[in-house]
Amino acid sequence: RLPNPTLAVTDGRITVKFHPWSIEAIVASEQAAH
Prior knowledge:
- By secondary structure, this protein is an alpha+beta fold.
- The chain has 1 helix and 2 strands, in the order E-E-H.
- A hairpin with a 4-residue loop joins strand 1 and strand 2 (15-18).
């Protein structure tokens, strides 16, 4: 898996996570792990 340093910001209802990886890179990493 890719290292996943996330910065999560929440207003109590919605959580937004920021990370240095693109969605495509994350999906590829997840698929490769299975």
